Amino acid sequence: MYINKLKLKNFRNYEELNLQFNSHKILFIGKNAQGKTNLLEAVYYLSTLDSLKNNSDSELIKWNENYSNISCEIQKFDVNIDLDVIINPPNRKKLKVNGILKNKSSDFISNISTVCFTVNDLLLLRGNPDNRRKWIDNAILQVYPAYSERLTKYNKIKSQKNNYLKNLKGNLNADTSLLDVWNEQLAISASNLTFIRISFLNELEKIVPNKHKLIAANENLSFVYNSSVLNDVFINDKPQFKIEDILQKYKQLLEEKKQEEIIRAQSVIGAHRDDISFFINGIEATKFASQGQQRTIVLSLKLAELELINQKINTNPILLLDDVLAELDDLRQNLLLNAINNNTQTIITSVDTLHFKEEYLKDVEIFEIKNNNVFKFN
Predict the structure, then answer these.
(1) What pLDDT digit, counting tens, does each position of 8-28 carry?
(2) Do both 10 and 94 map to the same domain?
(3) Domain of 18: which CATH number?
(4) Which domain range does residue 56 map to?
């Protein structure tokens, strides 16, 4: 799949922008704080309906404007598809595919898939659990778009349960029959998320080690899903968890933690508490890996995502690289660029062209960003 056109209206720092792409390799260059990342974020948003920076939708709208519009034309399986998003909080965002309004987000994001690699991803190992959950959730979305509805449903149940717990004000003698209802719904929803995450990691685990060995031949990469109900799930041990088993675990622990949740006035059990740990030769990388090892792990994950998405949807996702080459050494730069096949459209941001070999730049379409404007460079 490829993006042929990208149009922005009141998005971030862009009042109005119309771009047409004629190459599989696109490079945006410009000084910092010019809006390079914003262009990648617009494409990323079309595939996830989520911000790259954990911002709310309202923060995507240009200052002093009431709405934002992102639209693009993509080519997928030799068919052109028009995608259009109107962000107008507090109203519900409008999603259109070929001019037809879509009520389900999965019906929209199923049309475009991306793998995004940013400088923040290089901190994936030493960031907080939210970063790792967002990574796995958005990776799953690229393969299973309906997962977005499951995430939305879970977050809504969790929010309603937390509001109810706050209203209890720590009163252990209050009638908690409604809490039992919320716990039942949370257990069903959370078990779905946990099962899907573990299943996806199982799929990814079949690809990641080989990608990792391309850069670090003597290192074995493995990962563990840290579940609030299953303890640590060692992915490379091929766990055979059934969703029914996970559901029963949730129900059991939610009952056991009922009083604690009332006292603390928050949900202490759920998929929002889960995390992922990475190991190099059995040693926890989140604590002991060098910066080079961290970069290798993240690069391996991104290359594995590319391959897995291609396997599942039978087309290459669009690769978004946000100023990451400057953070990678020559070995990792070359591995990343060489691993991108000619059928993968790649959109890269960089301060300049110095990090790219002349051979790579031969068929690259370059745009320069300056003072909120985008100019064709070549």
Answers:
(1) 999 999 999 999 999 999 999
(2) yes
(3) 3.40.50.300
(4) 1-113+315-378
Residue type, 341: N
Convert the pLDDT of each residue in 56-80 to its tens digit: 899 999 999 999 999 999 999 999 9
- Alpha helices by DSSP H, listed for the chain, are 36-48, 105-109, 129-143, 147-168, 177-205, 208-215, 243-256, 258-264, 285-288, 291-313, 330-339, 358-361
CA 198 – CA 226 distance, rounded (Å) = 10
Residues 179 and 300 in one domain: yes
Residue type, 279: F
Tokens of 129: 């659990």
Contacts of residue 62, defined as CB under 8 A and 6 or more positions apart, other chains included, come to 10, 11, 12, 13, 14, 15, 68
Q: What is the pTM of this model?
A: 0.92
CB atoms within 10 A of CB 265: 15
DSSP 83-142: EEEEE-TTSPPEEEETTEEESSHHHHHTT--EEEEEGGGGGTTTS-HHHHHHHHHHHHHH
Geometric angle at alpha carbon 121, from 339 and 22, rounded to 5°: 50
**10 neighbors 88 (Cβ within 8 angstroms):** no
Residues of the chain with pLDDT under 70: 234-240, 378
* DSSP-derived secondary structure for 352-369: SSTTS-HHHHTTEEEEEE
Tokens of 371: 């003072």
Residues 166 and 233 placed together within one structural domain of the fold: yes
Q: Give the chain's domain count.
A: 2
Q: Give dist(CA 292, CA 327) in Å, integer.
A: 10
CB 69 within 8 A of CB 11: yes
- Please, are residues 159 and 182 in contact by the beta-carbon 8 Å criterion? no
Q: Read off the CATH number of the domain in which 307 is found.
A: 1.20.1050.90
